[in-house]
Amino acid sequence: RDKWSKKMDFLLSVIGFAVDLGNVWRFPYICYQNGGGAFLIPYTLMAVFGGVPLFYMELALGQFHRTGAIPIWKHICPIFKGIGFAICIIGLYVSFYYNTIIAWALYYFYSSFSSTLPWASCDNPWNTPACTNYFGRRNVTWTNFSRSPAEEFYTRKVLEIQKSGGLYDVGGMHWELLLCLFLIFTIVYFSLWKGVKTSGKVVWVTATLPYVVLLILLVRGATLPGAWRGVVFYLRPDWGKLLSTAVSV
């Protein structure tokens, strides 16, 4: 099997595997929905006693046997080879899930080059009468039926959910999103097609970018008016959530 050209390539690959898009996009929402600061207690316990040991075990087994996820379980216990297939299937599902989100981000990046941001006003063809623009205004009447320009841009322009009648009728093809998704999968393919020789170079960007983004968001968020009150509201512990067994989605 191919070897990493540099130890730093392997280290950055491990870091990129541990910190990814979910830390930027998913974790803040999950933390807020499950008790704010109280959520950090079960999260830390699971990370120390579950996540980190399993992560280290996976690295140790891979380095020792130098095989993939499927054949490695034949060396450990042949009856457990189904675990390897399950890992590959989960990886396939995650790639569909995350690459779609990255395609949305690419679409937003493309849309941001317009002179007026399309999610900053209610004067677009996809907006509805319920759209309420609050940018640069002090007295804004907000009701339960009000929708922000950003929300309507995402739901009605990007996803076009108004053209869908449900799971039985998902609507037509959004060619701009399809093109973005095709571009993302193409980049992923050429990042992996020569194994660690190419992925070892790509991780220099993919492993460091989340930290750069998190640092930018931290600085930007900390300099906004009322930032401290927002942090206190976000992390205020809701101890009752520790007794709840519901799964938030």
In short:
This protein is mainly α. The chain has helices spanning 7-18, 21-25, 27-33, 40-65, 72-76, 81-111, 149-158, 175-192, 196-206, 209-222, 227-235.
Describe what you observe in this structure.
Its main location: membrane. Keywords: Disulfide bond, Membrane, Metal-binding, Sodium, Symport, Transmembrane, Transmembrane helix, Transport. It is found in: Membrane. It contains 11 helices and no strands. It is globular, with a radius of gyration of 22 Å. Helix 6 crosses helix 8. With 249 residues, the chain is an all-alpha fold. The protein has helices spanning 7-18, 21-25, 27-33, 40-65, 72-76, 81-111, 149-158, 175-192, 196-206, 209-222, 227-235. The longest helix is centred in the middle third of the chain and has 31 residues, at 81-111. The chain has one domain (7-243). Helices cover 59% and strands 0% of the residues.
Distance between the termini: 39 Å
Largest sheet: none
Name the overall outline: globular
Structural domain count: 1
GO molecular function, one term: serotonin:sodium:chloride symporter activity
Family: Belongs to the sodium:neurotransmitter symporter (SNF) (TC 2.A.22) family.
Keywords: Disulfide bond, Membrane, Metal-binding, Sodium, Symport, Transmembrane, Transmembrane helix, Transport
Subcellular location: Membrane
